[in-house]
Amino acid sequence: MVLCAALGAPLLLARSDEARASVSVAISFDALVRASTAVVVGTAVEQRSVWEGGRIYSYSRVHVDSPVAGELHGDDEVWVRTMGGIVGDVGQIVDGEAVLTVGRPSLLFLHRASDGVHVVTARAQGQFGLYTDEQKQLRARKSSGVGALLAPKGADAAAAMAGDMIHERAVADAAKDIATAWSRAHAM
Questions:
Q1: What burial class does residue 65 get, using C-beta atoms within 10 Å of its C-beta: 0-12 exposed, 13-18 middle, 19+ buried?
Q2: Which residues in the chain come in under a pLDDT of 50?
Q3: In 3D, which of 86, 108, 114, 82 has the Cα closest to residue 95?
Q4: Which secondary structure element, helix H or strand E, spans residue 180, and what is its range?
Q5: pTM of the model
Q6: CA atoms 180, 125, 91, 111: torsion sign
Q7: How far apart are CA 93 and CA 91, in angstroms?
Q8: Hey, where are the domains in the chain?
């Protein structure tokens, strides 16, 4: 009986469902603004996924619906790279990564990668989905794909976290705070 229990235990462990989680250090609002080269309300209008270096990356052509701060202007279109996607019969999900959906607008904090393509700053922490409330006001909601967030240490430990500063706020109000923080962070 003991032998059967000992031999069966590894089978029970092997059968347990795969754990899916992402753990990241929470980014402060000011750090998110500082690390970005542009903040926009944008909508993915096209998307392609490709294999690169053994991983799947998605490239989304994002139309800038409304610039908030930085280098991008209204009606610009930029390519934004995110990890994960589907190529043929293979799909990859990257927990904690921003997920852009064609036709669905987001408030995006972006920075330009060394190859010129934009990426979402701080991954899913730099993407806020948009929705219209009962009063027909456009609001921002932090990404559900952020995963678990650890409190930052050091100088940012007492700072306001980006998700807390923007989540459930009217986009117009959040945009004012972003523009003010942008002026402080990117002053020449």
A1: middle
A2: 1-19
A3: 82
A4: helix 171-185
A5: 0.84
A6: positive
A7: 7
A8: 20-185
